[in-house]
């Protein structure tokens, strides 16, 4: 049980080798926090709907995304702002229109699984 932190070493385990495997799999707390933040962005139904739409169609403007998801323009814009700040999406200007696309390949892959489940 060499991976058990000192503050937990006095606790009784049932399957000590599996505890060490679990600790190794969990890894650094910062890594877990980063994934939790990514999942929290996907946990909101509005943001998830925006991302699913983008995953299926490619770049779309805010107003088009709002129509597709049933959101109003300001709500869609705010959700996209959060996703852009997290590096999940990027906006590309075309004159006065900004079209958003998924930038994060890991998020795109997760969305592929979401879409496959709903089909």
Structural class: mainly alpha
Order of neighbouring strands in the sheet with most strands? 1-3-2
Mean pLDDT rating: 90
Q: Give, in order, the helices and strands.
A: HHHEHHEEH
The largest sheet, given as strand count, sense and whether it forms a barrel, is: 3 strands, antiparallel
**Weakly predicted, low-confidence segments:** none
Instruction: Sum up the overall morphology in one term.
Output: elongated
List the helices and strands and how they pair.
Blueprint: H1 16-26, H2 29-43, H3 45-57, E1 60-61, H4 62-69, H5 73-85, E2 89-94, E3 97-102, H6 105-118
Antiparallel strand pairs: 1-3, 2-3
Helix pairs in contact: 3-4, 3-6, 4-5
Short description:
The chain has 119 residues and is mostly helical. The chain has helices spanning 16-26, 29-43, 45-57, 62-69, 73-85, 105-118, and strands spanning 60-61, 89-94, 97-102.
What do you see in this structure?
Helix 3 (45-57) packs across helix 6. The chain has a three-stranded antiparallel beta sheet with strand order 1-3-2. It has helices at 16-26, 29-43, 45-57, 62-69, 73-85, 105-118; strands spanning 60-61, 89-94, 97-102. It is mainly α and 119 residues long.
Notable traits:
single chain, 119 residues, three-stranded antiparallel β-sheet, 6 helices, 3 strands, elongated
């Amino acid at each position: 049980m060499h991976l058990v932190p000192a503050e937990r070493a006095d606790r009784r385990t049932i399957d000590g080798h599996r505890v060490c495997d679990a600790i190794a799999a969990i890894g650094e707390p910062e890594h877990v926090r980063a994934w939790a933040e990514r999942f929290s962005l996907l946990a909101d139904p509005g943001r998830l709907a925006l991302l699913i739409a983008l995953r299926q169609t490619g770049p779309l403007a805010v107003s088009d995304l709002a129509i597709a998801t049933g959101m109003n323009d300001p709500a869609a814009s705010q959700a996209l702002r959060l996703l852009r700040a997290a590096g999940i999406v990027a906006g590309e200007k075309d004159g006065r229109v900004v079209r958003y696309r998924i930038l994060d390949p890991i998020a795109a892959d997760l969305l592929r699984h979401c879409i496959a489940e709903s089909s």
